[in-house]
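In response to reviewer comment 3 from the previous cycle, which asked for concrete evidence that the modeling workflow produces usable outputs, we include below a single protein chain processed end to end. The sequence was submitted unchanged, and the resulting structure tokens are shown without manual editing.
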Amino acid sequence: MAQQLERLQNAKVLMYSHDSFGLGHLRRCRAIAHSLVDAYKGISVLILSGSPIIGQFDFKARVDFICIPGVVKLRNGDYTSLGLHVEVNQTLAIRASIIQHTAEIYSPDIFLVDKEPLGLRGEVAQTLKLMKLRGTTNVLGLRDIMDDSEALQAEWARKQVVPALDKLYDEIWVYGSKSIVNPIQGIELPESTRKKMRYLGYLKRQLPANGYLPRYDGGDDSSKPYLLITTGGGGDGELMVDWVIRAYEKAGKNGNGENRIGENELLLGLIILGPFMPKLAQRAFRERIRKIPQLRAKTFDSSIEVLMANAVGVVAMGGYNTFCEILSFDKRALLVPRETPRMEQRIRADHASNQGLISMLKCGDSENTQLMIDALKSLPDQPLPSSSGAGELLNGLENVNQRVADLIKHVD
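The workflow returned the following structure tokens.
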């Protein structure tokens, strides 16, 4: 037993997060890494990430990262290099080389791949094969919902994912609840692969160690109750932000176009535009926001958990991490899920709305400004997620910790 404990507390976990765009993969990996080092005081976690802003996050002791060259997915589905003025194939070759050589030298006990079974354009395939030969436990981590089943079936067939799941992976972890949705519903998988799947639960988020920091730099009204409007990375958040701003513009004026003060005002709103929102859009939104007494704006905050914990309610698009935070901090939430290029957010919002966890507006109704006004006004009186059993869904990190311990002891 003592030998097993020593083995566990000197273990190494390598995590891969392709992060071509947005913050979701990185923030999920960071939450898992921090949970592991809190649980096991000798374990080390190394994250391979393509996020260009990974350096803006704080990491706990024994968690480190390697930033591989970034790529960006274009609207037509192709990729291009983010920072390097080279062909994307050259960038991908550099990324694949860094990933494989890091794995060879680091020699992890567990290789945890986030969401993309073979990595971006297959860049982790060789590393998975190498780790398998060396006896490393290869694990695929999937969020609760991937996409519409037909779209996912076509994507995985094109990428030849199913054979990789069968041959290269030891386990498949789902960071969600089977009671809500099956992320690979409709996908034809052999029974041997299905037996590898484990539903671990949603990943509960925590406040920083110093607790409730100042809510935001809002000057004299920092102490006022506020709604948090967050787009996540912001690359696809323009529709939601525009809809919210229009609601504040209309609600703040009377029939004569004069500023209205009193009971018809909406709560103060803090909009997090997101670091990946196009600069032109950010400037245009800030110009409008400056004219609205009840709105404030920030581009990015690495401690979004604090802003959310202090908010009266949350307006968001419904990405995985934001949904976890809404449940973790028991926040009334209004979701406006995107429906392209993936249906993931819409499916998640539909299921959560049906279970009474959140309220939802459809992006197809975005021209209806009054609809958003009414939703924002009713948000503070909405039932809390806990009233619909949200707390029972949030055991993901504890289960990840236990699974890592079991796997490493088994290898030993």
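The two ends are 11 Å apart (CA to CA). We consider this sufficient to address the reviewer's concern, and the full set will be provided in the supplementary archive.
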